[in-house]
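# nightly structure sweep
# worker-07 picked up a monomer target from the shared queue
# config: single-sequence mode, recycle default, output format = structure tokens
# input follows
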Amino acid sequence: MKKKKKIKKNIYKKIKKKLQIKLLLNTGINQKYQFNNFIEGKSNKLARYSSYKFTKNLKNIYNPLFLYSNTGLGKTHLLHAIGNKFLIDNYNIKVIYIHSKNFIENVIHSIKNNSIEHLKNYYSSINVLLIDDIQLFSHKQYLQKELSYIFKKLFEKNQKIVLTANCYPSYINGIDKNLRFYLKKGLTVSIHPPELITRTHIILNKAYDYKIDLSYQLAKYIAKKLYSNIRELKNFLKKIYITSLFIKKKIKMRFIQKELKKNIKKKKII
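# output follows
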């Protein structure tokens, strides 16, 4: 009897996993961005904690959750991680991730095709709506009106909203009072550039992902030289890996120093 129960439990787990994967593929959510592979440091600790806490209580007190930072500091990673966590824990709910650019295109397309009501009803039916780079709605008054309507409907049904932007909500220009009300309604958390130790761990983590043999000493050296954002660290790591393969040289200190000089020269030209 115990064996049969164990087999049934394993079959259920497999079915549940397949359902989760199927749902994740239809949500716009990237499965590679999870909470367990988000490198935490002083600069993003509160943002990570708030994001994770947001997924644990469907009726928590802060809604929407608003994350803001300069580009390449992990906002989008956390947005997808929230979506992934919701779907894994509650695979029967509707969770949608969308970038503001795509959202705007969808609204414009629906207006042209006289299907704006259908679009509004669709987004108003979502349990968790994740919108990236909300600042792109700046000075788009009609689009803001439609977005405010969707937010209003979601709040009436106690549904969840997570937003990201490149600055604090009050500093986004060209936003009408109705939409601004929703942007400032919940919890707003900033993400700062990562400190040296966090940058080092990010480099080592990405080196492992890319199967690059990199020592802690070399990772720390790169982290000292590149500090603007995480995206820059990742791009540099990919570049040195491809370059090392092309010229058939191992990634050592002199090689990294040479590539970093090239990187600095490029920045000056730009």
